[in-house]
Design goal:
Helix content is about 30%, strand content about 15%. With about 300 residues, it is an alpha/beta fold. It has one domain: Aldolase class I (TIM Barrel, Alpha-Beta Barrel). The strands form two sheets. An eight-stranded mixed beta sheet has the order 1-2-3-4-5-8-7-6, covered by helices on one side. Strand 7 and strand 8 form a beta hairpin. The two termini are about 15 Å apart.
Length: about 300
Amino acid sequence: MPVEVFGPGYQFLPRDEILTFGEIVRVIQAAVSLGVKKVRLTGGEPLLRRGATDLIALIAAVEGVDDLAMTTNGVLLSHHAERLHLAGLDRVTVSLDALDPEIFAQMNGVGAKVERVLSGISNAQVFGLPVRVNMVVQRGVNEGEIMPMLRWARDSGITLRFIEFMDVGETNGWKMREVVTGAEIVSIIKNEFSLVEVAPSYAGEVAKRWRFEDGEGEFGVITSVTQPFCGDCSRLRVSAEGKIYTCLFANEGRDLRSVLRRNASDDEVRAFLADGWGKRADQYSENRGIDHRKKAEMSYLGG
């Protein structure tokens, strides 16, 4: 969220336009009845939502949710880690693009300290909350952090995912020449470690995975720029104010909130979600360069 766009004067949504916890749980119950088993809370920053751990507990109680995860920037994780685990969160993904304090500060743009994120990760591990770390790699900015991040993750027992720098939203100034490709990342790592490629563990898995030949952990690479996986995507995103999207690069969503707030039946909510999935036609990553749509921000749709 570039500070020049999303500074102190930026007007976010009024409270009554945001889905309530009850509405969120109702959407999840409908999704589970359609076969969904995985739920992820993302953002923006989900730990800024007051009562986030209460929401986790409500979702964890929904029969059929087998995997409940959260993606966070980790700044508030140290404070919330124990309560998140006790509430029923199964795992947490932390966005961390550098260990070097100066590079980290440059990339987050709001003065956050990398030490707070590392402390949050450590606390999550102490309280038994499995941690994965996502690192977006941008040429000319943090590609020199690839190996320090990998060594740290390996030593810490953390699975690291490298993500190609994507053209999400309209404010991150994306240029193709700034993409460090997944193939480049793996080549850099092979200079130090012997690797064995790992077969996908389920259909539609987005990360290509490698394990270290000595058996000490694994890492993954998400190559949505150079090797898109649109055809295997089955995700559905629900924004904070209740619009549904079938693509991270979408420019508009369908209004689920109005359905929920006109006292629609459970069958009507299920039908609305099913219709959204059924009309999935987003192929932006496969049409990059010829699809010039205006895109919603990553901070709006989540990762």
